[in-house]
Amino acid sequence: MDIRKVKKLIEMMEESDISEIEIKEGEDSVRISRGGVVVPLSDLKVPEHKPIADRLETAADKPFIGHVVGAPMVGTFYRAASPSSPSFVETGDAVSEGDTLCIIESMKMMNYIKAEQTGKIEAILVVNEEPVEFDQPLFTIS
Amino acid sequence: MKRVLIANRGEIALRILRACRELGLETVAAYSQADSLALHLPLANDTVCIGKHSYLDSSQIISAAMIKNCDGVHPGYGFLSESSDFALQVEEAGLCFIGPAAPHIELMGDKAKARAAMTAKGIPVLPGSDGEVTRLDDACDCAERIGFPVMVKASHGGGGRGIQIFDDEASLRSAFEGLRNEAEQLFGNGGVYIEKWLDAPRHIEIQVFGDGNGRVIHFGARECSIQRRHQKLLEETPPPGIPVDRISGAGNVLL
């Protein structure tokens, strides 16, 4: 909002009996109170915190297909048992309940994460060595 | 220190966040799933979900601090803030535990040891037993020496529990073993000690703070006498009716 307009409003207020005035101009708005402070209302927004699953789903173009496997712990995600080993699973692989999907390393302990249901790997949502938080979507299984 | 993991919730998480902001430190707010809509979360530089319910899972908290590249962990109050095990694990992981050193937490968490440590430094404590009392006869001798009524307290007690008052030797004799068992069940440690019972005292606390580099201050006194079942309900500062010089005198003794 043009500062000259705001100054004009203040002058108008001082010359009259008006105690409070609010003007909206498109997206901008300003409220002036006698004895109070001018606060642009648009500056008062606090960003919303979204759980990581929502953030990821919004970032992807389409909603998740199938059952989402969330990380059961905080740590670093590994797709294979060692840098030279093949990945446990690839997109499109069939998996049975109990098959190892990945490793999450937490405080130097390697935790083998197993599939809880039989199906097909639709998508792998994290990359090798990515840090993951609790319940962060790792795979979708259809 | 550049980045701090806030391992708590509610008003203390927000207070820690504010303090970090004032000091120019980055913040990572840890939260449980139940707290995913907590209002302080969007104010932190980053957030990390540590589990379904609990801020008591030390390995998840430390893991979270590591994956988010924090160098310090602030435990807030309650939860793991008085756990010497947690403080030690944080330090062993190469992070800074923002709080007392693990050995100090352990020393002061054992009330019998804490009494002994203060006595060794010449700080007056309530008349009582010299450390823990294991044998009934020793308990009775001590009680007779300091005079009834006496309190028997669990060394690892807290939250107002593990305390019983005795007016005479007969009641002490019949309850002593039971108290030790109760302490074992409640706190995992059956150690007890004895202190003189004061009738209607003022319970005043002076908070002492050191920076680990030899600088120590005290924060004045708080009135903690308003209690229910030995638990403080409301604290007030300054304590009404106590002259300022008595407080600074006591504070200086502690420093």
Estimate the global geometry of chain A from the Cα principal axes: rod-shaped
Mean pLDDT of chain B: 93
How many beta-strand elements of chain A? 10
In the CATH hierarchy, what is the architecture of the largest domain in chain B at level 2? 3-Layer(aba) Sandwich
Helical content of chain B stands at 25-40%
Strand element count of chain B? 11
Radius of gyration based on Cα positions of chain A: 27 Å
The assigned structural class of chain A equals alpha+beta
Distance between the termini of chain B: 27 Å
* Overall pLDDT of chain A: 84
Low-confidence stretches of chain A: none
What's the CATH H-level homologous superfamily of the largest domain in chain A?
RNA polymerase II/Efflux pump adaptor protein, barrel-sandwich hybrid domain
Largest interface: A-B, 18 and 23 residues
Specify the biggest β-sheet of chain B.
Answer: 5 strands, parallel
List the total number of helices of chain A.
2
Helical content of chain A stands at: 10-25%
Task: Quickly count the domains of chain A.
Answer: 2
- The rounded Rg of chain B comes to 21 Å
Task: Tell me what the structure shows.
The complex is a heterodimer of chains A (142) and B (255). Chain A has two domains: 3-44, no CATH class; 52-141, RNA polymerase II/Efflux pump adaptor protein, barrel-sandwich hybrid domain (OB fold (Dihydrolipoamide Acetyltransferase, E2P), Beta Barrel), CATH 2.40.50.100. Chain A contains two helices and ten strands; from the N terminus they run αββαββββββββ. Chain A has helices at 3-14, 52-59, and strands at residues 20-25, 28-33, 67-70, 75-78, 94-95, 100-106, 109-114, 119-124, 131-132, 137-141. A four-stranded antiparallel beta sheet of chain A has the order 3-10-8-5, covered by helices on one side. A four-stranded antiparallel beta sheet of chain A has the order 7-6-4-9, with no helix packed on it. The longest helix of chain A has 12 residues, at 3-14. By secondary structure, chain B is α/β, with parallel strands linked by helices. Chain B folds into three domains: 3-101, 3-Layer(aba) Sandwich (Rossmann fold); 110-196, 2-Layer Sandwich (Dna Ligase, domain 1), CATH 3.30.1490.20; 204-254, no CATH class. Chain B has helices spanning 10-23, 58-67, 84-92, 102-109, 111-120, 136-146, 169-187, 244-254, and strands spanning 3-6, 26-32, 46-51, 72-74, 96-97, 150-154, 163-166, 192-196, 204-210, 216-228, 231-236. In chain B, the strands form three sheets. A five-stranded parallel beta sheet of chain B has the order 3-2-1-4-5. Chain B has a three-stranded antiparallel beta sheet with strand order 7-6-8, covered by helices on one side. In chain B, strands 9-10-11 form a three-stranded antiparallel beta sheet, covered by helices on one side. Chain B is globular. Chain B starts with a strand and ends with a helix.
